[in-house]
Design goal:
This protein is an alpha+beta fold and 67 residues long. The chain has one domain (10-61). It has two helices and five strands, in the order E-E-E-E-H-E-H. The chain has a five-stranded antiparallel β-sheet. Strand 2 (23-28) and strand 3 form a beta hairpin. The longest helix has 7 residues, at 48-54. The chain starts with 9 loop residues before the first strand and ends with a helix.
Length: 67
């Protein structure tokens, strides 16, 4: 399973958000990762290690679409 991620990728997290969605868009990459819920638009931030533990898979990658 490919777990490399970058800005504007759509990712699936292990647990659903309170609105029922588990697809998120990465809006900031650094020491912290900022995610935006694709259903309700809520934005959250978590540190990189926590994000990598909770990440299930990357479903849409900007780099793959360009190649």
């Amino acid at each position: 399973m490919d777990k490399t991620f970058s800005l504007n990728d759509v990712v699936v997290m292990r647990k659903n958000h309170a609105c029922g969605e588990n697809n998120w868009t990465i809006t900031r990459v650094g020491v912290d990762i900022k995610l935006k819920c694709n259903n309700c638009g809520r934005e959250i931030m978590m540190d990189r290690l926590e994000f990598q533990k909770k990440l299930k898979k990357v479903i849409k990658s900007e780099q793959k679409e360009e190649n």
